[in-house]
TrEMBL record:
Example of a GO cellular component annotation carried by this entry: membrane
Pfam families reported in the protein's UniProt record: PP2C
GO function term, MF aspect, one: protein serine/threonine phosphatase activity
Cofactor: Mg(2+); Mn(2+)
Every PPM-type phosphatase domain range: 66-356
Protein name in the entry: protein-serine/threonine phosphatase
UniProt keyword annotations, A-Z: Hydrolase, Magnesium, Manganese, Metal-binding, Protein phosphatase
Length: 388
């Protein structure tokens, strides 16, 4: 039965042959079919491991680790580590835009404030949202469907012993914390999620839109904002933020029957600030494609019980094995399915595991460190997006 389904899907979704390989500037990354990975690297505060597996015909996930100066003046600082996971939907344009602009915006505001703070991060998110709105405005006459492209946005910043977590959407950051009395490493979810499958998020949407009884709708057994989208906060998705982009020539399936006066979705991130402790071992940052198949504690146990080298790739592999098991197929058969068709079995998955060396985490943010930049890759087709 599965083999028959695979044949039908291949016929319907056969990808084009023109392939464009995205790799980071770091020489240590590898591409193995639809899997991209960097098994190990060094950041200002310790080690890291990254992996991305592609399911969509166009990779909609983007990810990055930037370490070193967090301001425009490399010689001034502050110094630290920036981690970003951007889970796009409707296309790759928004997640790519975030990958190109968010960290630069953060560096600009850090320079202006001469320090790292939640306010700096919030301003960087807002500038990125406004930048993408400019892209949509310019492209609307010729490419109106870009108004329906958006992205979740999960960011972590480690600076001067402090961890900042900012999130829009349903990607997740999970801390592994050692309990010295037992030797266990417990999972602590650091990010607040904005998916209306969560009752508190539905209640938030209903309180923000008290006059709209259809603000959240159960459609095909899935809760969705206006029956269209599961997340309540994002970058992009301009068609649900500005009414002038919710009209023809946008596809009818995205157009609302009733006009709206205020944004339905928000771009204001939930930000939390944590003082890192010596028993904080590592943080797993991942798009929801991973968390569909692994629990928080399950992922933490895997990281704790295996070598650091290649741990992000291991997490991705175990998630894919779980995805195959749910479809009653072998992992080896799942690996043979090409991008596009693969999306029927699992989502794009991006993972960054950031280990915390307490000696490095708590040193002064003024200690100069070399700049490191790694961006997750995949097999994709280039798209032309104006980014001015």
């Amino acid at each position: 039965m599965i083999s028959g389904l695979m044949n039908i899907l291949r016929a319907c979704f056969q990808p084009r042959e023109n392939r464009h390989v995205h790799t980071s500037s770091d020489a240590g990354d590898r591409q193995d079919g639809l899997l991209w990975y960097k098994d190990t690297g060094q950041h200002v505060n310790g080690e890291f491991s990254m992996a991305v597996v592609q399911a969509n015909n166009l990779l909609e996930d983007q990810s990055q680790i930037e370490s070193g100066s967090l301001s425009l003046q490399d010689s001034v600082g502050p110094y630290g580590t920036f981690i970003g996971i951007y889970d796009g939907h409707g296309g790759p344009e928004t997640s790519r835009f975030i990958n190109e602009h968010l960290f630069q915006n953060l560096k600009r505001f850090t320079s202006e404030h001469q320090s790292m703070s939640a306010e700096v991060i919030r301003k960087a998110f807002q500038a990125t949202e406004e930048g993408f709105l400019s892209v949509v405005t310019k492209q609307w006459p010729t490419k109106p469907q870009i108004a329906a492209v958006g992205s979740c946005c999960l960011v972590g910043v480690i600076c001067n012993g402090t961890l900042y977590i900012a999130n829009l959407g349903d990607s997740r950051a999970v801390l592994g914390r050692l309990v010295k009395s037992t030797g266990e490493v417990l999972s602590i979810q650091l990010s607040a999620e904005h998916n209306v499958s969560i009752e508190s998020v539905r209640q938030e949407m209903q309180s923000l839109h008290p006059d709209d009884s259809q603000i959240v709708v159960l459609k095909h057994n899935v809760w969705r904002v206006k029956g269209l989208i599961q997340i309540s906060r994002s970058i992009g998705d301009v068609y649900l933020k500005k009414a002038e982009f919710n009209r023809e020539p946008l596809y009818a399936k995205f157009r609302l029957r009733e006009p709206f006066g205020k944004p339905i979705l928000s771009s204001d991130p939930a930000i939390s600030v944590h003082q890192l402790q010596p028993h904080d071992q590592f943080i797993i940052f991942a798009s929801d494609g991973l968390w569909e198949h692994l629990s928080n504690q399950g992922a933490v146990d895997i990281v704790q019980n295996h070598p650091r080298n290649g741990i992000a790739r291991r997490l991705v592999k175990i998630a894919l094995q779980e995805a195959a098991k749910k479809r009653e197929m072998r992992y080896s058969d799942l690996k043979k399915i090409d991008r596009g068709v693969r999306r029927h079995f699992h989502d794009d998955i991006s993972v960054a595991v950031v280990f915390l060396d307490s000696n490095l985490v708590h040193r002064a943010s003024s200690v100069k460190s070399p700049n490191i930049s790694v961006k997750g890759g995949g097999i994709s087709l280039p798209t032309k997006t104006t980014t001015t």
